[in-house]
Amino acid sequence: MDEIIDRLKKVRKGAMFIIEAPSGTGKGTVAKELLKADPNIKFSVSVTTRQPREGEVEGVDYYFVTDEQYNEFLAQDAFYEHVDSQYGPRYGTLRSEVDSFINVGQDVLFDMDWAGARQMKAKAKDDVVTIYLLPPSIKELRRRLVNRGTDSPEVIEKRMGIILDKISHWDEFDYVIVNVNLQETVTKIQKIISGERMKRVRQVGLKGFVKELVKEASE
Ligand code: 5GP
Predict the structure, then answer these.
(1) CB distance 83 to ligand 1 below 6 Å
(2) Which pTM value belongs to this model?
(3) Rg of the chain, C-alpha, whole Å
């Protein structure tokens, strides 16, 4: 029996979990908690042309590249999806961060905007699960952005200015959570992940398993 369970585990197809939220909604913290709690989820490290913020680590938070290096990735068709952000910097997801993992049953978590999520859905519909986090209030969101202390007042104003536009895409996502309490949000997403892992399309080993069940019945 153990052997069967092991085999079923191995042949599961990983899912791509995309979490999106307006700046300051706590998306980064939620992602960190999810990764810490589950070694079967790998974070897809994006490429960006923006400067690292204090505390951000190359290859962990992002691959920080120049415009020239970014153009090279584009020329090599190395991106699964990419967008030029409204703030100026460019962002992209490398194919190498994704395919080799989901094919061996490893789930991949993405921090990307709605435009990227849309591209991923178009390319890999069955493999992609999208989750949108809404802030409990706009006032609270501004307070969190200011307290984070990582952006200049001009950047905060810019971010606030496009928040409403970002929020208008909430209904393109599979799941929507109002992030009132960090731990509750993490628990809700963990439940989503458990359910998604059990979907028939992800359990690619089931076909062979059922075949064997049928064979066994005729023995
Ligand atoms: P930040 O510069 O604050 O880290 O991210 C700014 C925005 O870019 C966020 O909405 C973030 O989710 C998005 N982002 C980060 N990486 C990617 C990516 O690889 N692709 C896309 N489409 N968006 C990304």
Answers:
(1) yes
(2) 0.87
(3) 19
**Which tens digits make up the pLDDT trace of 87-103?**
689 999 999 999 888 98
For a ligand 1 pocket test, name from 29, 54, 85, 123 the mutation site with the most ligand atoms within 8 angstroms of its C-beta: 85
DSSP calls for the chain: -HHHHHHHHHTBPP-EEEEE--TTSSHHHHHHHHHHH-TTEEE-PEEE-SPPPTT--BTTTEEE--HHHHHHHHHTT-EEEEEE-TTS-EEEEEGGGTHHHHTTT-EEEEE--HHHHHHHHHHHGGGEEEEEEEPS-HHHHHHHHHHH--S-HHHHHHHHHHHHHHHTTGGGSSEEEE-SSHHHHHHHHHHHHHHHHTSGGGBTTHHHHHHHHHHHHT-
- Report which protein residue has its CA nearest ligand 1's atom 17: 112
